């Protein structure tokens, strides 16, 4: 396996590999082991496009992250960041896990605020390879994960407040681990590289300025760097350029607005600062594959 090629997997592909329900929302994936793993489902080096939190609820997992090998036992958790090479080396027959994976798009969609990024230290730190939870902390993590997993499977028709429940329960998970992190390591800050810090600051700026600013130059100027360097850093950290992240954030906001009948399509185009409804329609169709009208019709079924 030493010279095995490194594959890349999206969250959607991981769902299929683990045999879970494919109806879960794009950008967020919650896995709760209900049956023991008969064999290692990912016995080769791979990268993901997401952050992944992995909590061991029984058994043992031996995993290599880049060049660091870790053995995880019950009540221990790790965070695997995007683009990190992971290789599951061994799993015990009684292994069961709870994992929560989320993409950069999910962060954009849920409009993380500055205080949320302040609580993001545990997810972005490479200082802490793993944390040991108490039984009570493990039980709380499982409870929050179950809420996330259940609401992630529901449709808007079944649960009209699906997005709000996912948003709230995910933030609860975020602050749950921020609290544990600060309690165990009160004086340790996240070990962000300059590139990672820059990427997170870009996301924060994007959330604040999305409707008014869609040029890479604007964000690069605010961050006091060149547009080319910003895109290079974002490509290295998240696997996407600045233009791609900006466009995806606009599309996510457009989909959210189109899912509500309170605004007309022309009003949405104005809200998102397009010159007219036609230019908005062309932009939306280019990225989604069909018109805003067709998307709204499907969303309201």
UniProtKB/TrEMBL annotation:
Domain of life: Bacteria
InterPro entries with a match to the protein in the record: Homeodomain-like_sf, HTH_AraC, Tscrpt_reg_AraC-type_HTH
Extent of the signal sequence: none
GO molecular function term, any single one: sequence-specific DNA binding
UniProt-listed SMART domains: HTH_ARAC (SM00342)
Cited PROSITE patterns: HTH_ARAC_FAMILY_2 (PS01124)
Keyword set, alphabetical order: DNA-binding, Transcription, Transcription regulation
HTH araC/xylS-type domain sequence ranges: 200-298
Pfam families the UniProt entry points to: HTH_18 (PF12833)
Name under which the protein is recorded: HTH araC/xylS-type domain-containing protein
């Amino acid at each position: 396996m030493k010279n095995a090629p490194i594959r890349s997997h999206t969250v959607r592909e991981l769902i299929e590999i683990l045999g879970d329900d494919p109806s879960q929302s794009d950008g967020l994936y919650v896995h709760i082991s209900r049956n023991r793993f008969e064999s290692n489902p990912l016995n080769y080096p791979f990268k993901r496009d997401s952050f992944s939190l992995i909590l061991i609820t029984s058994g043992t997992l031996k995993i290599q992250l880049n060049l660091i090998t870790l053995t995880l036992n019950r009540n221990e958790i790790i965070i695997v960041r995007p683009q990190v090479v992971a290789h599951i080396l061994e799993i015990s027959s009684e292994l069961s896990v709870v994992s929560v994976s989320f993409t950069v798009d999910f962060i954009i969609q849920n409009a993380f605020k500055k205080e949320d990024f302040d609580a993001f230290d545990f997810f972005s730190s490479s200082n802490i390879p793993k944390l040991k939870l108490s039984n009570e902390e493990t039980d709380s993590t499982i409870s929050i994960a179950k809420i996330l997993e259940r609401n992630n499977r529901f449709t808007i028709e079944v649960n009209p407040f699906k997005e709000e429940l996912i948003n709230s329960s995910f933030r609860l998970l975020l602050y749950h681990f921020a609290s544990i992190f600060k309690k165990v390591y009160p004086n340790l800050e996240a070990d962000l590289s300059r590139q990672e810090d820059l990427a997170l600051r870009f996301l924060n700026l994007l959330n604040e300025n999305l409707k008014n600013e869609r040029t890479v130059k604007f964000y690069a100027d605010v961050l006091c760097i060149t547009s080319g360097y910003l895109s290079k850093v974002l490509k290295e950290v998240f696997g996407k350029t600045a233009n791609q992240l900006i466009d995806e954030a606009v599309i996510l906001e457009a989909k959210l607005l189109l899912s509500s009948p309170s605004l007309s399509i022309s009003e949405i185009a104005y809200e998102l600062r397009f010159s007219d409804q036609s230019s908005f329609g062309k932009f939306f169709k280019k990225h989604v594959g069909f018109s805003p009208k067709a998307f709204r019709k499907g969303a309201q079924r």
